[in-house]
């Protein structure tokens, strides 16, 4: 990786005096935009098909993800961790790094933790020429144009956020007793996902918001990637995530409806930087986050688990089998909330219970099996000739009584030429894709979060949601 050496030759600039932050700034509001790279045919069916396939890939990744950082007495200076398969229907934010600030776009991802950007004028992205992205034209961060860029050394505790607490394994070639560790950089990170990867070096940079600067923010400077046309802002629970590094007490967003088009609309992502005590936001229902009790897979500790217990489908209660409803001693099971998954995923035993109930209540309508096969959805109905469709109501019921009543657009989508077929926009595996029984049993995707205010209350370890017509702020 010759490109990595370009960074190593950057001159290390001395610490600069950092601007003071505005003490009155308690919240930071960013624009959140849907990323819907139009498929070449640009029709709805192909966009949905692409989204079903990427939702399954994403689910497989989240369910099998492994971090090797915590258990690597590795002899190599490269330590692997994994990041998600790029999602088709995600959301992005702009962040400013450096002095003077350089603005870049990032995928908002609550399922991973590192924040990284395409970096240097030599950024190489292979297999990036999909959809409407020009791989030679990907905006990158240029460290040499920033006076606040510093390369992270191997002894820096922030290097340990990504590479674990064992200094010897981070500092190859350095003997702490000889005290020559200070000139050795933190190892190259390689984040692997599905077929591709991204690799680079960790930097300390200023993360700039209007009137508020976060100094010494750990960020990945990626030099080489596959299928990563923009950076990723990790909002997971790891120490390297944006919320953890900024000490956020909460963050919240309102996801605009998926139109699967390129309309430039956006809504807000709000970051809360100061304590709000245990105050709840009015109009929101809350359920507590639960911890995964198992250390067996450190990757799972980065996820936001919630205690989803049952569904109400047209008034009929469908219970999630107990062994799947919360993470067990083996680390498997439970439900996570993920901004980077499009369609909610349910393991087969849960999905079958849900699907059977919808089938019972929509028994007068024929299944559209041809559309199911072609689209990747598992449950589609043909409503030809019926202009008023009696969709059963869907409610998520959490432990403690909180209920999430979904608008019908969040779980049924009209598919097909005349709009005469509607498919349940919830996925499972086991048909074309082999079933994965490890990891979270359910992944609450962004399609089912549309037109809700979603709040991650980190200070009080709870998940809040409230029905809301998300307005474009564009
Ligand atoms: C690091 O510092 C030590 C002691 O100061 C020196 O002997 C060594 O050559 C340096 N290594 C590099 C790679 O600069
Ligand atoms: C669908 O529409 C047809 C014609 O309007 C009607 O006869 C039929 O009862 C409807 N089916 C259902 C299940 O509502
Ligand atoms: C909040 O929960 C109550 C029942 O506890 C329910 O009636 C209400 O619809 C829920 N709000 C949302 C946004 O789902």
Automatic annotation (TrEMBL):
Record CDD domains: pepsin_A_like_plant
Q: Which InterPro entries match?
A: Aspartic_peptidase_A1, Aspartic_peptidase_AS, Pepsin-like_plant, PEPTIDASE_A1, Peptidase_aspartic_dom_sf, Plant_Aspart_Prot_A1, TAXi_C, TAXi_N
Q: Which domain of life is it from?
A: Eukaryota
> What biological-process terms (Gene Ontology) are attached?
proteolysis
Is Chloroplast included in the keywords of this UniProt record?
no
**Coiled coil segments of this chain:** none
Q: Return the Pfam families for the record.
A: TAXi_C, TAXi_N
Q: Which GO terms describe its molecular function?
A: aspartic-type endopeptidase activity
Question: Single GO cellular component annotation?
Answer: extracellular region
**Keywords recorded for this protein, A-Z:** Aspartyl protease, Glycoprotein, Hydrolase, Protease, Signal
Q: Where is the active site?
A: 109, 338
In what residue span(s) does the Peptidase A1 domain sit? 91-466
The text of the family note is:
Belongs to the peptidase A1 family.
Q: Which PANTHER family match?
A: OS07G0603500 PROTEIN-RELATED (PTHR47967), PEPTIDASE A1 DOMAIN-CONTAINING PROTEIN (PTHR47967:SF36)
What is this protein called in UniProt?
A: Probable aspartyl protease At4g16563
What is the source species?
Answer: Cicer arietinum (Chickpea)
Name the gene. Answer: LOC101500418
């Amino acid at each position: 990786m010759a490109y990595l050496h370009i960074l190593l030759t950057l001159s290390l600039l001395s610490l600069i005096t950092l601007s003071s932050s505005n003490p009155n700034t308690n919240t930071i509001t960013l624009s959140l935009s849907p990323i819907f790279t139009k498929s070449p045919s640009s029709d709805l069916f192909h966009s949905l098909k692409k989204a079903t396939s990427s939702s399954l890939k994403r689910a497989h990744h989240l369910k099998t993800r492994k971090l090797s950082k915590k258990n690597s007495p590795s002899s190599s200076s490269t330590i692997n961790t994994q990041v998600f398969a790029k999602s088709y229907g995600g959301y992005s934010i702009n962040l400013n790094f450096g002095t003077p600030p350089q603005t870049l776009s990032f995928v908002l991802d609550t399922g991973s933790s590192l924040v990284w950007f395409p970096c240097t004028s030599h950024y190489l992205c292979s297999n990036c020429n999909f959809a409407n992205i020009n791989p030679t034209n990907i905006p990158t961060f240029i460290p040499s144009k920033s006076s606040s860029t510093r390369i992270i050394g191997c002894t820096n505790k922030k290097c340990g956020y990504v590479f674990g607490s064992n200094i010897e394994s981070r500092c190859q070639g350095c003997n702490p007793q000889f005290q020559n560790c200070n000139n050795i950089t933190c190892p190259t990170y390689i984040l692997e996902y599905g077929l591709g990867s991204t690799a680079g070096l960790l930097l300390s940079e200023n993360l700039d918001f209007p009137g508020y600067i976060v100094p010494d923010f750990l960020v990945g400077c990626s030099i080489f990637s596959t299928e990563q046309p923009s950076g990723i802002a990790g909002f997971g629970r790891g120490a390297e995530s944006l919320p953890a590094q900024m000490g956020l007490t909460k963050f919240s967003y309102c996801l605009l409806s998926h139109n699967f088009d390129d309309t430039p609309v956006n809504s807000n992502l709000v970051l809360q930087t100061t304590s709000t005590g245990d105050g709840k936001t009015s109009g929101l229902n809350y359920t507590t986050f639960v911890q995964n009790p198992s250390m067996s897979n450190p990757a799972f500790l980065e996820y936001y688990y919630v205690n989803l217990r049952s569904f109400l489908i047209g008034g009929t209660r469908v219970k999630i089998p107990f062994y799947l409803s919360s993470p067990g001693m083996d680390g498997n099971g439970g439900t996570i909330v993920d901004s980077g998954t499009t369609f909610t995923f349910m393991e087969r035993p849960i999905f079958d219970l849900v699907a059977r109930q919808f089938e019972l209540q929509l028994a007068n309508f024929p299944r559209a099996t041809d559309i199911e096969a072609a689209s990747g959805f598992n449950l589609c109905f043909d409503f030809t000739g019926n202009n008023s469709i009696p969709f059963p109501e869907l409610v998520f019921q959490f432990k403690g009584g909180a209920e999430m009543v979904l608008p019908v657009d969040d779980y049924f989508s009209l598919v097909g030429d005349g709009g005469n077929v509607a498919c349940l926009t919830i996925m499972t595996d086991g048909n074309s894709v082999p079933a994965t029984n490890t990891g979270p049993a359910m992944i609450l995707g962004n399609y089912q979060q549309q037109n809700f205010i979603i709040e991650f209350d980190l200070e009080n370890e709870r998940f809040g949601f409230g029905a809301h017509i998300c307005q474009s702020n564009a």
